[in-house]
Design a protein that fits this description.
Radius of gyration: 20 Å
Helix content: 25-40%
Order of helices and strands: EHHHEHEHHEEEEHHEE
Shape: globular
Strand order of the largest sheet: 1-9-8-7-2-6-3
Largest sheet: 7 strands, mixed
Strand content: 15-25%
Number of helices: 8
Structural class: alpha/beta
Length: 322
């Protein structure tokens, strides 16, 4: 039985997506060459997700080919528009959004895409950033009573994020963004990353596809999704994501959390069963609620939905019809 909200369960007559099995999607690679080496795949892999040659060849190479076509079309449209307007506009990055739940593998997907897209000749400069840096600081979250809702839409400095994306899409030469540390579990004060007119900018985040509320007066209320040219949603069954979250938390307990400077260092000394119970509570009271209330409802706003199985392998690709 298909789970609630599963794209595969939709009536194909009314679905806005064309659904591909893994085998069907893999054939869309055509003659796209494999440009990543095995040692690079090790560096691109996540904490609990190992990127295999097979996954790159069957899933990511077809996707990089599709995105390359989209970028080329966008560049041509921009050139035609500039000619029509009689002006020479500055270069505007093509923005790719990668959305989905905590622990579903967004960061891994974003890293692999960055590595592949940068090796296409027409857009060699590809930057990657997460929206985590636009979270309010822990001190500010505490002041607002939002520490237990970290990752929810209201925990982000949306105004600052929109200014950043507005500058990116306006072709500003140098745009700064704040830096977030998962080790310290907080925004790093005084630190920033500079984005300098890349050909492609990949943005990875939990709530990037959330729409803005419709203004009663017909005015403009922009949201992050307004600045995204192509959106990808990484999907999996909720029970599977929960399992991945717990596995990742337990692995971090025996690695990064052992550092005394880590925000979650206290869990390194706790009994494994107690840590697992704590992780399960964090998942169910914060991350699962955010997924159900804010993240999953945005899934159908993506141009592409990649549905993973329990082994982290993508099983189905659903591409929005043009």
């Amino acid at each position: 039985m298909a789970r609630r909200g599963d794209v595969k369960s939709e009536n194909p007559v009314f679905s806005p997506y064309r659904v591909f099995t893994r085998e069907e999607w893999a054939r869309l690679r055509a003659d796209t060459p494999m440009t990543l080496h095995p040692h690079e795949l090790e560096q691109l892999s996540g904490i609990i997700e190992e990127v295999s040659v097979e996954e790159v060849e069957q899933i990511y190479l077809p996707l990089s080919r599709l995105l390359n076509l989209y970028v080329a079309a966008a560049q041509k449209l921009h050139s035609v528009s500039s000619e029509f307007l009689g002006r020479k506009d500055t270069k505007v990055p093509f923005v790719i959004g990668v959305a989905g739940s905590v622990a579903v593998g967004k960061s891994t997907t974003a890293r692999v895409l960055k590595a592949l897209l940068a090796r296409w000749p027409d857009h060699p400069r590809v930057d990657l950033m997460t929206t985590d840096g636009f979270l309010y600081s822990n001190a500010e979250l505490e002041r607002r009573g939002l520490m237990d809702r970290k990752g929810f839409p209201e925990s982000f400095d949306t105004e600052r994020l929109l200014r950043f994306l507005g500058d990116i899409k306006s072709g500003v030469d140098r745009v700064s963004a704040p830096v977030y540390s998962h080790f310290q579990y907080d925004v790093l004060p005084g630190q920033e990353v500079i984005i300098e007119q890349p050909d492609i900018l990949i943005i990875e985040g939990l709530n990037i596809l959330q729409p803005a509320e419709m203004p009663k007066d017909g005015g403009t209320i922009p949201f992050v999704s307004d600045f995204i040219d192509f959106a990808i949603y990484i999907d999996a069954d909720m029970a599977v994501i929960e399992k991945w979250y717990l596995t990742r938390f337990m692995r971090l307990r025996s690695t990064a959390f052992r550092d005394p400077g880590a925000y979650f260092h206290k869990y390194a000394a706790m009994a494994p069963d107690d840590v697992r119970k704590t992780a399960l509570r964090l998942w169910r009271t914060i991350n699962l609620k955010n997924l159900e209330q804010n993240i999953l409802p945005t899934r159908r706003r993506a141009q592409l939905i990649l549905q993973k199985g329990e082994s982290h392998r993508v099983q189905v690709a659903s591409l929005r019809k043009l």
